[in-house]
Amino acid sequence: MSSPDQTATQPATAPPSKAAPRPRGQGIRRRTTVRKVDPWSVLKLSLVFYFCLLLVVMLGLAVFWAVVNRLGVVDTLLAFLGELQFDVEIDGGNLARAVFLTGLLNVVLWSGINVFAALLYNLVADVVGGLRVTLLDDE
After folding, report:
1. Residue 90 pLDDT more than 70?
2. d(Cα 53, Cα 63) in Å, to the nearest integer?
3. Which H/E stretch holds residue 134?
4. Over the stretch 111-135, which tens digit does the pLDDT of each residue have?
5. Which of 31, 30, 27 has the alpha carbon at shortest distance from 139?
6. Cα 106 from Cα 119, distance rounded (Å)
7. Tell me, what's the pLDDT at 21?
8. pLDDT, tens digit, for every residue of 50-76?
9. Element (DSSP H or E) covering residue 121
10. pLDDT band of 7, cuts 50, 70, 90
């Protein structure tokens, strides 16, 4: 049998408490602040995104050109312009090349605009403190 002095000096061991279970469908909310955006990452992501967008546009234009050419719209348009004394020649390859070069120019231009926006955000975030975002972790 232990004396009352021994039990008073030993810490009481309580069973480990379990965290209260959360209702189903609710997650953990965490707040974080975006203080800096890396311009190099923005450039890489922008180049990939806009180049993929260019490829999608080129594929869509190729399908559109094939359908319009197959329906004979191009030949009808050229015949109509020929009756009006306009000598016009439409070449699908030159048209696709022009669209691709214009698209490449847009890829470079818009990627540069995105990098400039990231740099501008970094400057503003230094003054204001950044953008506060609340994230929800569904477990």
Report:
1. yes
2. 15
3. strand 131-137
4. 999 999 999 999 999 999 888 988 8
5. 27
6. 20
7. 61
8. 999 999 999 999 999 999 989 988 888
9. helix 92-128
10. very low
Tokens linked to 36: 């800096």
User: Given the structure tokens 């999608």, which residue do they identify?
Assistant: 56
CB neighbour class for 111 (10 Å; exposed up to 12, middle 13-18, buried from 19): buried
- By C-alpha distance, which of 58, 42, 55, 60 is closest to 110? 42
- 105 token code pair: 């120019």
What is the residue type of 106? N
Strand runs labelled E in 20-77: 28-34
In angstroms, the Cα distances linking 37 to 13, 42, 99, 117 are: 49, 8, 32, 10
What is d(CA 96, CA 64) in angstroms, rounded to the nearest whole number? 12
Quick one: 43 exposed, middle or buried, by C-beta within 10 A (0-12, 13-18, 19+)? middle
Token pair recorded at residue 55: 């490829």
CA distance to 24, 38, 114, 121, per residue, from 126 (Å): 39, 14, 18, 9
Measure the CA–CA gap between 45 and 4, rounded to whole angstroms. Answer: 70
Closest CA to 100 of 46, 49, 53, 44: 53
